Prior knowledge:
Elements: H1 9-16, H2 22-30, H3 33-48, H4 63-88, H5 92-99, H6 101-107, H7 115-128, H8 131-142, E1 148-151, E2 167-171, E3 176-180, E4 188-189, E5 200-209, E6 212-222, E7 235-239, E8 252-256, E9 259-262, E10 272-273, E11 279-280, H9 289-320, H10 339-374, H11 381-409, H12 421-430, H13 438-457, H14 467-474, H15 484-511, H16 516-550, H17 556-576, H18 578-584, H19 589-606, H20 610-615, H21 621-624, H22 635-643, H23 655-665
Parallel strand pairs: 1-5, 2-5
Antiparallel strand pairs: 2-3, 3-9, 4-8, 5-6, 7-8, 10-11
Helix pairs in contact: 2-3, 4-5, 5-6, 7-8, 9-10, 9-11, 9-12, 10-11, 10-16, 10-17, 10-19, 11-12, 11-13, 11-16, 13-14, 13-15, 13-16, 14-15, 15-16, 15-17, 15-18, 16-17, 17-19
Bound molecules: flavin-adenine dinucleotide.
InterPro entries: ACOX_C_alpha1, Acyl-CoA_ox_N, Acyl-CoA_Oxase/DH_mid-dom_sf, Acyl-CoA_oxidase, Acyl-CoA_oxidase_C, AcylCo_DH-like_C, AcylCoA_DH/ox_N_sf, AcylCoA_DH/oxidase_NM_dom_sf
Keywords: FAD, Fatty acid metabolism, Flavoprotein, Lipid metabolism, Oxidoreductase, Peroxisome
Subcellular location: Peroxisome
Amino acid sequence: MSSKTKVNADLQRERDKCSFNITELTNLLDGGAAMTEERRRREETVLKEGIHIEEVPSEYLSHKEKYELAVKKACLLFKLIRRLQEEENTGMESFRAVLGGSLGAAILQDGSPLTLHYVMFIPTLMGQATVEQQAYWIGRAFNLDIIGTYAQTELGHGTFIRGLETTATYDPSTKEFVLHSPTLTAYKWWPGGLAHSANYCIVMAQLYTNGQCHGIHPFVVQLRDEETHMPLPGIKVGEIGAKLGMNGTNNGFLGFEHVRIPREHLLMKNSQVLEDGTYVKSPSSKLTYGTMMFVRVVIVKDMCNYIAKAVTIATRYSAVRRQSQPKPDEPEPQILDYLTQQHKLLVGISTAHAFQLSAEWIWNMYNNVTAELETGDMERLPELHALSCCLKAVTTAEAASVVERCRLACGGHGYMLASNLPLTYGHVTAACTYEGENTVLLLQTARYLVKAWQQAAAGTSLPPTVRYLSRAAAARKPRWDNSVSGLLHGFETLAAGKIALCVANIEKRQKSGLSYEDAWNMTSVQLAEASEAHCRVFILSSYYEETERLVKSSSPELREVMFQLVDLYIVYWALQRIGDLLRFTSISERDIEKLQYWYEDLLTKLRPNAVGLVDAFDLRDEILHSALGAYDGRVYERLMEEALKSPLNAEPVNQSFHKYLKPFMQGKL
Ligand SMILES: Cc1cc2nc3c(=O)[nH]c(=O)nc-3n(C[C@H](O)[C@H](O)[C@H](O)COP(=O)(O)OP(=O)(O)OC[C@H]3O[C@@H](n4cnc5c(N)ncnc54)[C@H](O)[C@@H]3O)c2cc1C
C-alpha cells in the first residue's frame, strides 16, 4: 500500500496516533485476513501489468482518442482475465474480481466500453437462456469470441418498458423473427459498448406472433460482421455523443430495418415461440426479475467503493492542508481540526461501512431467494424486489452527495480533475439514473409498502423487513428513548407513520372523487419520502446488527471505534430527519439538544482516528489516482507535477498569441 517516498509529517502523525490496529480493520472489511491477502495479490497481479499507466493523461485526449485508449485498455484487461482464468482455472469470479470493485475503475477511469458484456450480456444469458441456448452462447461470450451488450432503453422510452417500440415479428414461413424500429423514438439509445465495440447485443423488443403482441422479450442479435466489424445490413448503429461523465463507455444508438434473426435467438428460458408461431407463456413474469436484482445489488457494492475512494482522498488531504488562523498566536490548523470538516468527512466513512454491510445482507438474501426460486418458491421475491429498488435509489443518491461533499471539502483543489473527485462523481451520479431511475424505484417500493401497510392493519403477518409495520399498526406512539436502539425504533415509527399517512391520503383523495392513479400521483412526493424512510430503517438496523455480529471477536480498541461510527451514522440521520421525528414520534426539544451534543462529541472522539479509518480501506495509490489522496500526502508536489503534464505547458508561447491575441491587442484583428 505505502509508497516508499517520505510521508508528509502531518499525515504520519495522524497514523502514529491512531488508537486501533489498521490492518485489523482492513481484514474485517475484506471478510478476513485471507481475503485481504487475496485482494492484495490480485491487485498486484493486475497493476503490475501497467495497463493503467497513461503516457498523456486521458483528460487531454480528444473524444475519439479517449475511446481508442479505452478499447486498448479494456482489451488488455480482458486478455489478462483470460490468462487468469486459464492459470487459476476459474470462471466468472475472475471477471468479477478484476472488473468489479475499485480495480476495474482504476484502470479505466472514465468507464470501459466492454463492461456491459460482463455486467449485463452474460448475466442475461445466464438468467434467460435455455440450457441449450446457454451451451451455445455462454461459451462464446465467456471466451470473448463475441462481445455483447444489452439494449433496452430507447430514445422515446426508458422507464416505461411496456412503451418500447422496437418490434420482433415472427415469420413462420422462414422460422425467423424480423426486428424493426418503426419510428425515430424506437431507436435504442444508451447501451454501453453498443456504438463501436460490441458485435452482439441482447435486444428487448415487443414480440409479435400470429398477429398478436406478447410484450417485451429478449433477443440475441448479431450487429456486426465478426471479421470486418462492419454493421450488418439493416443495422444502424452509432455513438450518442459526449456526456457529463463515463466518456469511455461508448454508449450507442441502434435502429433496425427489417433485420431477420433465427427463431432460436429469442431467449426462451421463460417464454417460448414454437416453430409454427405458437406462443408459450412464461409460468411467472417475475422470473425475469433475477438479473435486474443481481445488477442492483452489484451497484450498491460499487457505491461503497466509490465512497471509500472519495473519503480517503478528502480525509488525507484534510490532514495535510492547513488553513486560516483561529487563534492569533498559533500556527494554521489542519483543516481536519474544524468540526464542520469532520462533519463533512466522518459521516462519509460511516456511510461506506453502512452500505457495505447492507449490501452483504441483501446479497445473502438475493442468493437465498434465487435458490428458493429454483424450487418454485416465490414467496420472498416481492420483498427482495422492494428492498433492492429502494436500496439502489438511496445508496446511489447518498453516494453522489457524499462524493460531492468530499469534493467541496477539498476546496479549489477538489475541482481539479487531478483530485479524481470529478470523475468519481460522474460515475456515481450516473448510477442514480441507470438500472432504474431513482424516483421511479422509490415509487415501486412504495407500492409494496402501501400493500404491506394494508396487510399490517388487517392483522396479516408480514415478511421480516416490513414486520415493524405490524408492530406500529398495533401500538400507539411509544415513549421516546434517546439511545441507539431507541433511535432505531424511532425510525421505524417514523417510516410506519409516513406510510400510514400516504395510505390515508390516497384513500381520502379517492373519496373526494379522484381515480386511484390520480390519487397516487398527488401523493407521490410523500410516497417517495416514505420509501426512503423505509430504506433508512433497513440500512440503519442492518448496519447496527451486522456490526454487532462482525466485531464480536475484534479487539476492544477496534470495537469501540466501530460502534462510534455506527452511533455517528444513526445520530447524524436522526438530526437530518428532526422534522419528521418531531412529527411522527414523541421526541422533545431536550432530546434533540442531547442528540446534537452527542453528535458533536462523536465527531471529536473519531477525529484522531480519521486517517486510520480511511487507511483501513486499503486503497492503493493507483486505485485512488488522486494528487490529493496519495498515501504519502505529497499533495502540492503532485498537483504541480500534474499541472506540468498539461499540453499547454509544453511551449512557453501558444500560437494563438500571434494569431489572435497580439493582433487583437494592437487593434489589428
Ligand atoms: C450512464 C448511463 C448508462 C446507461 N446504460 C444503459 C444500457 O446499457 N442499456 C440500456 O438499455 N439503457 C441504459 N441507460 C438508460 C437508463 O436505463 C435510462 O436512462 C433510465 O432507465 C431512465 O429512463 P429515462 O432516461 O427514459 O428517464 P425517464 O423515465 O424519461 O425519466 C425522466 C423523469 O421522469 C420521471 N418519471 C418517469 N416515469 C415516472 C413515473 N412513473 N412516476 C414518476 N416519475 C416518473 C423520472 O423520475 C425522471 O425524473 C443508461 C443511462 C445512463 C445515464
